[in-house]
Amino acid sequence: MMIKLSFLNLKNSAALLTVCAIVSCSPEKQKEEPVVVPQNTVTKPRIVPPEFNGDSAYAFVKAQADMGPRVPGSKAHEKSVIYFKKQFERFGAQVMIQSGNVTTFDKKSWVLKNVIASINPTSANRIILAAHYDSRPFSEKETDPKLKEKPCPGVNDGASGAGVLLEVARILQQKNPEIGVDIILFDLEDYGMPNGGPDMADTWCLGAQYWSKNPHKQNYTARFGVLLDMVGAKDAMFAREGYSVFYANDIVTKVWKAAEVCGSGKYFNKEEYGEITDDHFYINKIAQIPCIDILHYDIYKGSFFDHHHKNSDDLSTIDKNTLKGVGQTLLEVIYNE
Ligand code: AHN
Ligand code: ZN
What we know:
binds zinc ion; binds N-[2-(1H-imidazol-4-yl)ethyl]acetamide; 37% helix; alpha/beta; Aminopeptidase; single chain
């Protein structure tokens, strides 16, 4: 009993080895139970990352919002791609625009553009950070039929994730991380069939589906990925999404822990909820890279953020503190990886 209690309180491996030695001295146990030293008892000292700047991230979100809805085929969409490329290059990343032909549920054809910004491009030890940047061409959750037909401003749903990742790139240039980071901004996530049901799931996330079938480099792989989706609302709640837990639970654990360590824990709910078809699903299923989704889904309301697919998803939905909470969590992961 004594040994059991002290075992529970162990914090360092030296003490653990001592206890293991005592246990293994017990003559009747020596033969059938070999001593196994747990691998995770030696914790690396924490590297404190640089501070994520919420004002700077907000400016990156506002720049996208000011262009108007970045609906596929629009001038604003085209402009946003040029903007992302210019910003990432300013931050010293290697930028590639991946083009591909896709057809949406309404039988329209598009040349999608995924923006890929690589930091430390030659490193074999890589992670993916992703978000979609396109805006939904309709606002079907509005009640007014006139508003339903309008494009969604896509400020929290789209621009927030891309804005956080631009600020991450800016920080990574100031303090180069040990690992390689590929920031992927996916196109055509949000052109899925309205009220389509589960069999229509593949009408969403066309940019991510394309990239997962055709990664930007031959034999590309990464240790894991983190997707951001709707990461800027004041009342944001990021709970553990079903596919993330199913495919990449250790990454969920890692990121949720990082959030707590860096003081962003209040946004990260420990409960698990259902599976959401989002870009990460295809990265898991097709590219077979474990990928999680930091996604605003309120488990108590049972819905995405309040202005989801409404014309009211504008700049007023954004809170700098939320952007910072998410961005700081990513930096905590990156510099301690
Ligand atoms: C579906 O509604 C099938 N997926 C939600 C993914 C999404 C839409 N994220 C942002 N907009
Ligand atoms: Zn959406």
